[in-house]
């Protein structure tokens, strides 16, 4: 009788599970299906509203649900979607100009430069670019300075003061709290861990920060100077004396053209487009227009493809996702590009501060294998440092933006330690082990000399491997690499001078070299990674439903379910097996 009850309960549970899934799929279908049908419409005499206040990634990402294709997502709000949209707007008769209106851009310096370059090219069409702000941040003004006319609110403010950075130091904090970081590093410039070792910035770190800040500031000044017709020397004077901190001063300094209220600015847009004063000015957001442009851009079909593989985020050991670079998705992407005969070359777009040394090495290996079959060109974004440079160094050619942060060829290890904190709280940890080094690390015990030496050995070994990879990839002597390494950070401009990169430019230049190396003149782009998703797994994570296995386990009991699973596994085995003769379950 109990068995029949359990069977009925199981069947009922499965039907409930399937019912919940069907309802959820219908809901998802309605939500996603309806949004996909809402096509963006651009009306004649429109102005493109370049408001970039959402987080801008190089690659918006493409997600596929294998079992539920209607949930697939291919967003078009990445950096290069925005750039493509600006290029398309230049030839779109419905777009009369671009307005940068109270922007508050949410992008890095190199990304901002790439968008700025696209706006300069857009102006060649003869269409206008205007800018307005109540408050200009330094980065917003850098972008807006390209405009034909720069407006500012009469009560507005401008931040134009040069670049700075601030670093917090925690040595005293660690001693007072008893919670510290055990640090082993190699390279005098490897400053990522310095705040845990010192109370003040080291001279070496101060030197490198000053150098790369001045390099970036020099690039920003140079471009603003060209757009506004103001010498770089005068721009420094304006920054030093804060001579553009309000609208009146900014106009006197010639950083802006007109002081106006927002309604007056909008009236000016109507005049520029020939819109009647009594009518609303047609506007289309860059977010919507990027989707529209991607749908309507006419590209000549070519059997030749160039794969653009995005490595964006911290490098982690694992699969990886939209926010992290894992060797899992990178390996799949590189292997597909390598084995696809239609793909003639690979461009690796890197925007990563580095991370796992092991994952970096595994990705490096896949690039090395790919390079033997097809050209591999690297395009660097905001940052391609440490592990980010590791996965770049063996490419056939490396292209960086002048403002890219790169280099940082150094290694460190860091472990949290709460020994003093635990002691202060009356906590004592006791270990029992079978061998001398069974306990390699404990949060509750400080590292002993032997443990510290083991970690340092590994750090030095990885540093030797890292510098060796760079030397091999860049055609340099390893000692020469070590001279410019030591964990030091460089901008793209300075990295060019010391041989870490080959040329300055953006993704477009990297694609040009990739095509030349592959010997093709016409091609289409195929973007990677494509992220695979399991809807059932996602639903379980959010507690929306239970998997069939979970329901069966609950209804039948752990032991009965395990027995059924073993029987099923045995019936599925085919061919010769390399398998232990019994189950091992050591507890």
Automatic annotation (TrEMBL):
TM regions (residue ranges): 7-32
Positions annotated as active site in the UniProt record: 190 (proton donor/acceptor), 386 (nucleophile)
Coiled coil: none
GO CC annotations on file: membrane
Record's subcellular location: Membrane
InterPro entries: ClpP/crotonase-like_dom_sf (IPR029045), Pept_S49_pIV (IPR004634), Pept_S49_SppA (IPR004635), Peptidase_S49 (IPR002142), S49_SppA_67K_type_N (IPR047217), S49_SppA_C (IPR047272)
Recorded superkingdom: Bacteria
Domain Peptidase S49: 122-273, 370-520
Cited SUPFAM superfamilies: ClpP/crotonase
A GO biological-process term: signal peptide processing
This protein's UniProt keywords: Hydrolase, Membrane, Protease, Serine protease, Transmembrane, Transmembrane helix
Molecular function, one GO term: serine-type peptidase activity
PANTHER family documented for this protein: PEPTIDASE S49 DOMAIN-CONTAINING PROTEIN, PROTEASE 4
Similarity remark: Belongs to the peptidase S49 family.
Cited NCBIfam families: SppA_67K (TIGR00705), SppA_dom (TIGR00706)
Protein's recorded name: Signal peptide peptidase SppA
Upper taxonomic lineage: Bacteria, Pseudomonadati, Bacteroidota, Flavobacteriia, Flavobacteriales
Encoding gene, per UniProt annotation: sppA
């Amino acid at each position: 009788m109990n068995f029949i009850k359990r069977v009925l309960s199981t069947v009922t549970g499965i039907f409930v599970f399937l019912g919940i899934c069907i309802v959820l799929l219908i809901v998802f279908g309605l939500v996603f299906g309806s949004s996909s049908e809402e096509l963006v419409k651009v009306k004649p005499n429109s102005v493109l509203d370049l408001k970039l206040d959402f987080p801008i990634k190089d690659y918006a990402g493409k997600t596929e649900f294998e079992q539920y294709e209607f949930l697939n997502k291919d967003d078009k709000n990445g950096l290069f979607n925005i750039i493509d949209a600006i290029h398309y707007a230049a030839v779109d008769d419905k777009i009369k100009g671009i307005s940068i209106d109270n922007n508050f851009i949410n992008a890095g310096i190199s990304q901002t430069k790439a968008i700025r370059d696209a706006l300069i090219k857009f102006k060649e069409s003869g269409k206008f670019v205007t800018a307005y702000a109540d408050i200009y941040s330094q980065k917003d003004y850098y972008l807006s300075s390209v405009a034909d006319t720069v407006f500012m609110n009469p009560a507005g403010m401008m931040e134009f003061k040069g670049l700075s950075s601030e670093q917090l130091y925690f040595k005293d904090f660690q001693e007072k709290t008893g919670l510290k970081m055990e640090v082993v590093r190699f390279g005098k410039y490897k400053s990522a861990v310095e705040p845990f070792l010192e109370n003040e910035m080291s001279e070496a770190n101060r030197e490198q920060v000053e150098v790369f800040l001045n390099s970036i500031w020099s690039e920003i000044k140079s471009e603003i100077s060209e757009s506004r017709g103001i010498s770089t020397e005068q721009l420094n004077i304006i920054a030093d004396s804060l001579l553009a901190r309000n609208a009146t001063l900014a106009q006197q300094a010639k950083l802006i053209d007109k002081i106006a209220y927002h309604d007056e600015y909008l009236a000016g847009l109507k005049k520029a487009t020939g819109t009647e004063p009594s009518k609303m000015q047609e506007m289309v957001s860059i977010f919507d227009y990027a989707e529209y442009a991607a749908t309507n851009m006419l590209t000549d079909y070519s059997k030749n493809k160039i794969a653009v593989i995005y490595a964006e985020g911290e490098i982690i050991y694992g699969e990886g996702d939209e926010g992290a670079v894992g060797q899992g998705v990178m390996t799949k992407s590189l292997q597909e590009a390598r084995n696809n005969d239609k793909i003639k070359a690979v461009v690796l777009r890197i925007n990563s501060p580095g991370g796992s040394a092991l994952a970096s090495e595994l990705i490096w290996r896949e690039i090395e294998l790919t390079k033997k079959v097809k050209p591999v060109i690297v395009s660097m974004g905001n940052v391609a440092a440490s592990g980010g440079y590791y996965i770049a160094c063996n490419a056939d050619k490396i292209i960086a933006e002048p403002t890219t942060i790169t280099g940082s060829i150094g290694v460190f290890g860091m472990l949290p330690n709460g020994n003093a904190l635990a002691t202060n709280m009356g906590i004592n940890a006791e270990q029992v082990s079978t061998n001398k080094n069974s306990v390699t690390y404990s949060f509750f015990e400080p590292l002993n000399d032997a443990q510290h030496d083991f970690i340092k050995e590994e750090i030095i070994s990885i540093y030797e491997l890292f510098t060796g990879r760079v030397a091999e990839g860049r055609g340099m002597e390893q000692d020469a690499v070590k001279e410019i390494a030591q964990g030091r950070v460089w901008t793209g401009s300075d990295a060019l001078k010391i041989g870490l990169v080959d040329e300055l430019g953006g993704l477009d230049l990297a694609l040009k070299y990739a095509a030349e190396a592959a010997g093709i003149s016409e091609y289409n782009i195929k973007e990677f990674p494509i992220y695979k998703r399991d809807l059932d797994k996602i639903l379980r994570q959010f507690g929306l439903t239970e998997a069939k296995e979970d329901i069966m386990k609950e209804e039948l009991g752990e032991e009965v379910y395990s027995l059924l699973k073993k029987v099923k596994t045995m019936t599925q085995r085919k061919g010769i097996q390399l398998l232990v003769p019994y189950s091992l379950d050591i507890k």
